[in-house]
Amino acid sequence: MRALDQTPGQTQDIERTMLAIGAAARRAAAAMAKAAPAAKTAALKEAAAALRADAAVILAANARDLEAAGEMTLSAAMLDRLRLDDKRVEAMAQGLEDVAALPDPVGTVLARWTRPNGLDITRVRIPLGVIAIIYESRPNVTADAAGLCLRAGNAVILRGGSESFHSSGAIAASLRCAIAASGLPADAVQLVPTRDRAAVGKMLTMSDFIDVIVPRGGRSLIERVQRESRVPVIAHLEGICHVYVDAKADLAMARQIVLNAKMRRTGVCGAAETLLVDRAVASSHLPLILADLHAAHCEIRGDDATRALDPLASPATEDDWTTEYLDAILAVRVVDGVAGAIDHINRYGSHHTDAIVTADAATAERFLGDVDSAIVLVNASTQFADGSEFGMGAEIGISTNRLPPRGPVGAEQLTTYKYVVRGAGQVRP
Fold first, then answer.
1. How is domain 14-236+405-421 classified at the CATH fold level?
2. pTM strictly above 0.85
3. Does the bond joining 405 to the residue before it have cis omega, within 30 degrees of 0?
4. pLDDT tens across 183-199, in order?
Protein backbone atom coordinates (compact mmCIF):
# COMPACT_ATOMS: atom_id res chain seq x y z
CA MET A 1 0.00 0.00 0.00
CA ARG A 2 1.53 3.30 -1.11
CA ALA A 3 1.68 5.98 1.58
CA LEU A 4 -0.39 8.99 0.55
CA ASP A 5 1.61 11.54 2.49
CA GLN A 6 5.17 10.81 1.46
CA THR A 7 5.33 13.82 -0.83
CA PRO A 8 4.97 17.18 0.97
CA GLY A 9 2.06 19.22 -0.33
CA GLN A 10 0.58 16.31 -2.27
CA THR A 11 -3.18 16.71 -2.72
CA GLN A 12 -4.98 13.94 -0.91
CA ASP A 13 -8.19 12.23 -1.85
CA ILE A 14 -8.85 10.76 1.57
CA GLU A 15 -12.49 9.95 0.96
CA ARG A 16 -11.83 7.99 -2.23
CA THR A 17 -8.97 6.11 -0.61
CA MET A 18 -10.97 5.21 2.47
CA LEU A 19 -13.98 4.06 0.47
CA ALA A 20 -11.72 1.82 -1.62
CA ILE A 21 -10.22 0.35 1.55
CA GLY A 22 -13.70 -0.20 2.98
CA ALA A 23 -14.96 -1.96 -0.15
CA ALA A 24 -11.89 -4.19 -0.24
CA ALA A 25 -12.35 -5.03 3.45
CA ARG A 26 -15.98 -5.95 2.91
CA ARG A 27 -15.03 -8.35 0.10
CA ALA A 28 -12.28 -9.85 2.23
CA ALA A 29 -14.65 -10.25 5.18
CA ALA A 30 -17.03 -12.30 3.05
CA ALA A 31 -14.19 -14.67 2.17
CA MET A 32 -12.87 -14.81 5.72
CA ALA A 33 -16.31 -15.73 7.10
CA LYS A 34 -16.17 -18.92 5.01
CA ALA A 35 -12.50 -19.71 5.64
CA ALA A 36 -11.82 -23.08 7.23
CA PRO A 37 -10.27 -23.07 10.71
CA ALA A 38 -7.18 -24.84 9.36
CA ALA A 39 -6.69 -22.14 6.71
CA LYS A 40 -6.80 -19.39 9.34
CA THR A 41 -4.41 -21.31 11.56
CA ALA A 42 -1.97 -21.75 8.68
CA ALA A 43 -2.15 -18.04 7.83
CA LEU A 44 -1.41 -17.05 11.42
CA LYS A 45 1.60 -19.38 11.59
CA GLU A 46 2.86 -18.06 8.25
CA ALA A 47 2.43 -14.50 9.52
CA ALA A 48 4.51 -15.30 12.62
CA ALA A 49 7.27 -16.72 10.43
CA ALA A 50 7.12 -13.65 8.20
CA LEU A 51 7.61 -11.27 11.13
CA ARG A 52 10.71 -13.18 12.19
CA ALA A 53 12.06 -13.19 8.65
CA ASP A 54 11.36 -9.48 8.21
CA ALA A 55 12.65 -8.42 11.63
CA ALA A 56 15.52 -6.37 10.20
CA VAL A 57 13.16 -4.44 7.91
CA ILE A 58 10.70 -3.84 10.77
CA LEU A 59 13.41 -2.61 13.12
CA ALA A 60 14.82 -0.30 10.44
CA ALA A 61 11.34 1.21 9.99
CA ASN A 62 11.04 1.57 13.75
CA ALA A 63 14.38 3.38 13.85
CA ARG A 64 12.93 5.95 11.42
CA ASP A 65 9.96 6.45 13.71
CA LEU A 66 12.15 6.79 16.79
CA GLU A 67 14.35 9.33 15.04
CA ALA A 68 11.31 11.40 14.13
CA ALA A 69 9.91 10.97 17.64
CA GLY A 70 13.00 12.69 19.01
CA GLU A 71 11.69 15.89 17.45
CA MET A 72 8.16 15.44 18.86
CA THR A 73 9.08 15.65 22.57
CA LEU A 74 7.18 12.45 23.33
CA SER A 75 6.98 11.29 26.94
CA ALA A 76 9.16 8.45 28.16
CA ALA A 77 6.04 6.25 28.31
CA MET A 78 5.15 6.99 24.69
CA LEU A 79 8.72 6.30 23.57
CA ASP A 80 8.67 2.99 25.42
CA ARG A 81 5.45 2.03 23.68
CA LEU A 82 6.87 3.01 20.31
CA ARG A 83 10.23 1.27 20.61
CA LEU A 84 10.75 -2.17 19.07
CA ASP A 85 13.69 -4.53 19.47
CA ASP A 86 14.39 -8.16 18.63
CA LYS A 87 12.63 -9.31 21.79
CA ARG A 88 9.46 -7.35 21.02
CA VAL A 89 9.36 -8.52 17.40
CA GLU A 90 9.70 -12.09 18.68
CA ALA A 91 6.89 -11.39 21.16
CA MET A 92 4.66 -10.29 18.27
CA ALA A 93 5.47 -13.47 16.37
CA GLN A 94 4.88 -15.62 19.45
CA GLY A 95 1.59 -13.81 20.02
CA LEU A 96 0.42 -14.79 16.53
CA GLU A 97 1.37 -18.39 17.20
CA ASP A 98 -0.50 -18.27 20.50
CA VAL A 99 -3.58 -16.99 18.70
CA ALA A 100 -3.17 -19.72 16.06
CA ALA A 101 -3.27 -22.31 18.86
CA LEU A 102 -6.60 -21.01 20.18
CA PRO A 103 -9.83 -22.83 19.33
CA ASP A 104 -11.57 -21.23 16.37
CA PRO A 105 -14.60 -19.44 17.84
CA VAL A 106 -16.52 -19.32 14.55
CA GLY A 107 -19.22 -21.97 14.32
CA THR A 108 -19.30 -22.64 18.05
CA VAL A 109 -22.79 -23.62 19.18
CA LEU A 110 -23.67 -21.40 22.13
CA ALA A 111 -27.09 -22.90 22.83
CA ARG A 112 -29.53 -25.33 21.29
CA TRP A 113 -33.12 -26.20 22.12
CA THR A 114 -36.25 -27.67 20.55
CA ARG A 115 -39.64 -26.00 20.71
CA PRO A 116 -42.87 -27.95 21.35
CA ASN A 117 -43.75 -27.56 17.65
CA GLY A 118 -40.54 -29.35 16.67
CA LEU A 119 -38.48 -26.34 15.58
CA ASP A 120 -34.80 -26.90 16.31
CA ILE A 121 -33.12 -23.59 17.28
CA THR A 122 -29.38 -23.07 17.54
CA ARG A 123 -27.40 -19.97 18.52
CA VAL A 124 -24.08 -20.03 16.62
CA ARG A 125 -20.98 -17.79 16.71
CA ILE A 126 -20.17 -15.87 13.52
CA PRO A 127 -17.60 -13.16 12.70
CA LEU A 128 -18.41 -9.51 13.32
CA GLY A 129 -17.38 -8.64 9.74
CA VAL A 130 -15.14 -5.60 9.22
CA ILE A 131 -13.43 -4.17 12.29
CA ALA A 132 -11.65 -0.81 12.28
CA ILE A 133 -9.00 -0.23 14.93
CA ILE A 134 -7.60 3.23 15.66
CA TYR A 135 -4.57 3.19 17.92
CA GLU A 136 -1.70 5.36 19.06
CA SER A 137 2.03 4.74 19.37
CA ARG A 138 2.31 0.99 19.96
CA PRO A 139 3.21 -0.70 16.63
CA ASN A 140 2.81 -4.18 18.15
CA VAL A 141 -0.95 -3.56 18.13
CA THR A 142 -0.73 -3.93 14.34
CA ALA A 143 0.21 -7.59 14.68
CA ASP A 144 -1.95 -8.37 17.73
CA ALA A 145 -5.09 -6.84 16.23
CA ALA A 146 -4.58 -8.43 12.83
CA GLY A 147 -4.03 -11.86 14.36
CA LEU A 148 -7.11 -11.75 16.56
CA CYS A 149 -9.32 -10.49 13.75
CA LEU A 150 -8.09 -13.26 11.45
CA ARG A 151 -8.68 -15.95 14.08
CA ALA A 152 -12.26 -14.73 14.44
CA GLY A 153 -12.84 -14.67 10.66
CA ASN A 154 -12.97 -10.87 10.31
CA ALA A 155 -11.30 -8.32 8.05
CA VAL A 156 -9.57 -5.43 9.77
CA ILE A 157 -8.74 -1.84 8.85
CA LEU A 158 -5.89 -0.53 10.97
CA ARG A 159 -5.16 3.13 11.55
CA GLY A 160 -1.98 3.41 13.60
CA GLY A 161 -0.56 6.49 15.24
CA SER A 162 1.42 8.97 13.18
CA GLU A 163 4.47 8.42 15.38
CA SER A 164 4.52 4.68 14.48
CA PHE A 165 3.69 5.17 10.80
CA HIS A 166 6.73 3.40 9.33
CA SER A 167 6.83 0.62 11.94
CA SER A 168 3.16 -0.25 11.49
CA GLY A 169 3.55 -0.10 7.72
CA ALA A 170 6.41 -2.59 7.75
CA ILE A 171 4.53 -4.96 10.06
CA ALA A 172 1.33 -4.76 7.99
CA ALA A 173 3.23 -5.39 4.75
CA SER A 174 4.81 -8.51 6.24
CA LEU A 175 1.43 -9.78 7.45
CA ARG A 176 -0.29 -9.15 4.11
CA CYS A 177 2.33 -11.10 2.19
CA ALA A 178 1.99 -14.03 4.58
CA ILE A 179 -1.81 -14.02 4.40
CA ALA A 180 -1.77 -13.99 0.60
CA ALA A 181 0.81 -16.80 0.52
CA SER A 182 -1.57 -18.86 2.67
CA GLY A 183 -4.41 -18.49 0.19
CA LEU A 184 -6.52 -16.02 2.15
CA PRO A 185 -7.25 -12.46 0.92
CA ALA A 186 -4.44 -10.01 1.70
CA ASP A 187 -7.07 -7.31 2.12
CA ALA A 188 -8.24 -9.04 5.28
CA VAL A 189 -5.56 -6.80 6.82
CA GLN A 190 -5.25 -3.21 5.60
CA LEU A 191 -3.41 -0.26 7.08
CA VAL A 192 -4.64 3.26 6.37
CA PRO A 193 -1.78 4.68 4.25
CA THR A 194 -1.84 8.24 5.55
CA ARG A 195 -1.20 10.20 8.72
CA ASP A 196 -3.92 12.68 7.78
CA ARG A 197 -6.49 12.86 10.58
CA ALA A 198 -9.22 13.30 8.00
CA ALA A 199 -8.94 9.54 7.45
CA VAL A 200 -10.16 8.95 11.00
CA GLY A 201 -13.11 11.28 10.45
CA LYS A 202 -14.06 9.36 7.32
CA MET A 203 -13.77 5.99 9.06
CA LEU A 204 -16.25 7.12 11.69
CA THR A 205 -18.92 7.58 8.99
CA MET A 206 -18.33 4.37 7.01
CA SER A 207 -21.22 2.36 8.42
CA ASP A 208 -21.77 0.68 5.03
CA PHE A 209 -18.32 -0.91 5.23
CA ILE A 210 -17.30 -1.02 8.91
CA ASP A 211 -19.23 -3.02 11.53
CA VAL A 212 -17.32 -2.07 14.70
CA ILE A 213 -14.68 0.53 15.60
CA VAL A 214 -12.18 -0.04 18.39
CA PRO A 215 -10.24 3.07 19.51
CA ARG A 216 -7.09 2.59 21.58
CA GLY A 217 -5.42 5.72 22.85
CA GLY A 218 -5.81 8.76 25.05
CA ARG A 219 -9.05 10.20 26.38
CA SER A 220 -9.33 12.77 23.58
CA LEU A 221 -9.26 10.05 20.91
CA ILE A 222 -11.78 7.86 22.74
CA GLU A 223 -14.15 10.76 23.35
CA ARG A 224 -13.94 11.90 19.73
CA VAL A 225 -14.74 8.42 18.42
CA GLN A 226 -17.62 7.97 20.85
CA ARG A 227 -18.99 11.42 19.99
CA GLU A 228 -18.70 11.29 16.19
CA SER A 229 -18.93 7.64 15.20
CA ARG A 230 -21.90 6.33 13.22
CA VAL A 231 -20.49 2.85 13.77
CA PRO A 232 -20.76 0.86 17.05
CA VAL A 233 -17.73 1.43 19.31
CA ILE A 234 -15.85 -0.90 21.65
CA ALA A 235 -14.18 1.64 23.93
CA HIS A 236 -10.78 1.14 25.53
CA LEU A 237 -10.76 3.96 28.06
CA GLU A 238 -7.69 5.01 30.00
CA GLY A 239 -6.47 2.74 32.79
CA ILE A 240 -6.75 4.54 36.10
CA CYS A 241 -6.00 1.37 38.04
CA HIS A 242 -5.89 1.00 41.82
CA VAL A 243 -4.29 -1.29 44.37
CA TYR A 244 -5.93 -1.33 47.80
CA VAL A 245 -3.90 -2.67 50.74
CA ASP A 246 -6.36 -3.88 53.34
CA ALA A 247 -5.88 -4.07 57.13
CA LYS A 248 -5.58 -7.87 56.79
CA ALA A 249 -2.98 -7.71 54.01
CA ASP A 250 0.24 -9.68 54.32
CA LEU A 251 2.93 -6.98 54.30
CA ALA A 252 5.46 -8.91 52.21
CA MET A 253 2.80 -9.72 49.64
CA ALA A 254 1.58 -6.14 49.57
CA ARG A 255 5.08 -4.79 48.98
CA GLN A 256 5.66 -7.20 46.12
CA ILE A 257 2.31 -6.59 44.44
CA VAL A 258 2.38 -2.78 44.71
CA LEU A 259 5.91 -2.54 43.32
CA ASN A 260 5.08 -4.83 40.40
CA ALA A 261 1.72 -3.19 39.68
CA LYS A 262 3.34 0.24 39.39
CA MET A 263 6.87 -0.35 38.16
CA ARG A 264 7.01 -3.53 36.04
CA ARG A 265 6.03 -1.46 33.03
CA THR A 266 4.73 2.01 33.78
CA GLY A 267 3.50 2.66 30.23
CA VAL A 268 0.87 -0.10 29.99
CA CYS A 269 -2.82 0.42 30.68
CA GLY A 270 -2.76 -2.09 33.55
CA ALA A 271 -0.13 -0.17 35.51
CA ALA A 272 -1.39 0.98 38.91
CA GLU A 273 -1.86 4.74 39.11
CA THR A 274 -3.27 5.02 42.65
CA LEU A 275 -2.41 3.18 45.86
CA LEU A 276 -5.00 3.05 48.64
CA VAL A 277 -4.03 1.88 52.13
CA ASP A 278 -6.30 1.08 55.08
CA ARG A 279 -5.79 3.63 57.84
CA ALA A 280 -5.52 0.76 60.34
CA VAL A 281 -2.18 -0.37 58.86
CA ALA A 282 -0.92 2.84 57.29
CA SER A 283 1.80 3.41 59.89
CA SER A 284 3.07 -0.18 59.72
CA HIS A 285 2.70 -0.94 56.00
CA LEU A 286 2.88 2.30 54.06
CA PRO A 287 6.45 3.45 54.90
CA LEU A 288 7.95 0.15 53.74
CA ILE A 289 5.83 0.02 50.59
CA LEU A 290 6.81 3.58 49.71
CA ALA A 291 10.47 2.90 50.47
CA ASP A 292 10.39 0.18 47.80
CA LEU A 293 8.86 2.59 45.33
CA HIS A 294 11.35 5.37 46.10
CA ALA A 295 14.19 2.89 45.61
CA ALA A 296 12.73 2.15 42.17
CA HIS A 297 12.71 5.92 41.42
CA CYS A 298 8.95 6.33 41.59
CA GLU A 299 7.57 9.76 42.44
CA ILE A 300 4.94 9.72 45.21
CA ARG A 301 2.05 12.18 45.37
CA GLY A 302 0.18 11.69 48.61
CA ASP A 303 -2.67 12.98 50.72
CA ASP A 304 -1.97 14.53 54.14
CA ALA A 305 -1.92 11.18 55.94
CA THR A 306 0.56 9.77 53.43
CA ARG A 307 2.84 12.80 53.63
CA ALA A 308 2.86 12.57 57.41
CA LEU A 309 4.47 9.13 56.99
CA ASP A 310 6.64 9.95 53.99
CA PRO A 311 8.49 13.31 53.93
CA LEU A 312 9.58 12.62 50.32
CA ALA A 313 6.01 12.61 49.02
CA SER A 314 4.70 15.70 47.28
CA PRO A 315 1.11 16.90 47.84
CA ALA A 316 -1.55 15.16 45.76
CA THR A 317 -4.15 17.35 44.05
CA GLU A 318 -7.68 16.42 43.08
CA ASP A 319 -6.46 15.90 39.52
CA ASP A 320 -4.01 13.21 40.65
CA TRP A 321 -6.87 10.85 41.50
CA THR A 322 -8.08 10.94 37.88
CA THR A 323 -4.75 10.95 36.04
CA GLU A 324 -3.32 8.08 34.01
CA TYR A 325 0.37 8.88 34.41
CA LEU A 326 1.82 6.02 32.34
CA ASP A 327 5.02 6.99 34.11
CA ALA A 328 6.89 6.39 37.37
CA ILE A 329 4.41 8.46 39.38
CA LEU A 330 1.92 7.10 41.92
CA ALA A 331 -0.90 8.83 43.77
CA VAL A 332 -1.34 7.53 47.33
CA ARG A 333 -4.26 7.93 49.73
CA VAL A 334 -5.04 6.54 53.18
CA VAL A 335 -8.69 5.39 53.37
CA ASP A 336 -11.07 4.13 56.03
CA GLY A 337 -11.26 0.44 55.32
CA VAL A 338 -12.61 -1.39 52.31
CA ALA A 339 -15.67 0.87 52.17
CA GLY A 340 -13.44 3.90 51.73
CA ALA A 341 -11.43 2.11 49.04
CA ILE A 342 -14.54 1.08 47.11
CA ASP A 343 -15.97 4.60 47.29
CA HIS A 344 -12.71 6.10 46.00
CA ILE A 345 -12.36 3.61 43.14
CA ASN A 346 -15.94 3.93 41.95
CA ARG A 347 -15.70 7.73 42.10
CA TYR A 348 -12.31 8.31 40.48
CA GLY A 349 -11.53 5.12 38.54
CA SER A 350 -12.00 4.41 34.86
CA HIS A 351 -13.66 0.98 35.38
CA HIS A 352 -10.59 -0.73 33.99
CA THR A 353 -8.62 -2.85 36.54
CA ASP A 354 -8.47 -2.72 40.33
CA ALA A 355 -6.91 -5.00 42.95
CA ILE A 356 -7.16 -5.71 46.66
CA VAL A 357 -4.45 -7.24 48.85
CA THR A 358 -6.02 -9.02 51.82
CA ALA A 359 -6.09 -12.30 53.73
CA ASP A 360 -9.74 -11.75 54.68
CA ALA A 361 -12.02 -13.72 52.35
CA ALA A 362 -15.17 -11.76 53.24
CA THR A 363 -13.45 -8.43 52.56
CA ALA A 364 -12.13 -9.76 49.26
CA GLU A 365 -15.60 -10.83 48.17
CA ARG A 366 -17.04 -7.45 49.12
CA PHE A 367 -14.39 -5.73 47.01
CA LEU A 368 -15.01 -8.06 44.05
CA GLY A 369 -18.74 -7.48 44.22
CA ASP A 370 -18.81 -3.73 44.81
CA VAL A 371 -15.99 -2.40 42.62
CA ASP A 372 -17.52 -1.52 39.26
CA SER A 373 -14.60 -2.37 36.97
CA ALA A 374 -14.04 -4.67 34.02
CA ILE A 375 -11.30 -6.56 35.89
CA VAL A 376 -11.02 -6.98 39.66
CA LEU A 377 -8.25 -8.98 41.32
CA VAL A 378 -7.48 -10.38 44.76
CA ASN A 379 -3.85 -10.69 45.83
CA ALA A 380 -2.45 -10.19 42.33
CA SER A 381 -0.86 -7.36 40.37
CA THR A 382 -2.95 -5.17 38.10
CA GLN A 383 -0.35 -5.83 35.39
CA PHE A 384 -2.14 -9.13 34.74
CA ALA A 385 -4.76 -7.05 32.89
CA ASP A 386 -3.64 -8.47 29.59
CA GLY A 387 -5.31 -10.81 27.10
CA SER A 388 -2.26 -13.04 26.82
CA GLU A 389 -2.21 -13.47 30.60
CA PHE A 390 -5.88 -14.47 30.41
CA GLY A 391 -5.03 -17.22 27.91
CA MET A 392 -6.42 -15.30 24.93
CA GLY A 393 -3.13 -15.26 23.01
CA ALA A 394 -3.33 -11.48 22.65
CA GLU A 395 -5.85 -8.69 22.95
CA ILE A 396 -7.07 -5.69 21.02
CA GLY A 397 -7.58 -3.83 24.28
CA ILE A 398 -9.37 -3.80 27.61
CA SER A 399 -12.95 -2.77 27.01
CA THR A 400 -14.43 -0.56 29.72
CA ASN A 401 -17.90 -0.70 28.12
CA ARG A 402 -20.85 -1.70 30.24
CA LEU A 403 -22.25 -3.72 27.33
CA PRO A 404 -20.27 -6.72 26.06
CA PRO A 405 -17.51 -7.21 25.29
CA ARG A 406 -16.02 -6.08 28.59
CA GLY A 407 -12.47 -6.62 29.80
CA PRO A 408 -9.80 -8.14 27.53
CA VAL A 409 -11.00 -8.28 23.93
CA GLY A 410 -9.66 -11.44 22.31
CA ALA A 411 -10.73 -13.49 19.31
CA GLU A 412 -13.90 -14.80 20.93
CA GLN A 413 -14.99 -11.26 21.80
CA LEU A 414 -14.66 -10.28 18.11
CA THR A 415 -17.59 -12.46 17.15
CA THR A 416 -21.32 -12.11 17.31
CA TYR A 417 -23.99 -14.79 16.80
CA LYS A 418 -26.99 -15.71 14.75
CA TYR A 419 -29.93 -18.05 15.24
CA VAL A 420 -30.25 -21.05 12.97
CA VAL A 421 -33.76 -22.55 12.94
CA ARG A 422 -34.45 -25.95 11.36
CA GLY A 423 -37.99 -27.10 10.73
CA ALA A 424 -39.94 -29.83 8.99
CA GLY A 425 -42.67 -27.82 7.30
CA GLN A 426 -44.02 -25.99 10.35
CA VAL A 427 -46.20 -22.94 9.76
CA ARG A 428 -47.36 -20.52 12.41
CA PRO A 429 -51.06 -20.71 13.28
1. Aldehyde Dehydrogenase; Chain A, domain 1 (3.40.605)
2. yes
3. yes
4. 999 999 999 999 998 99
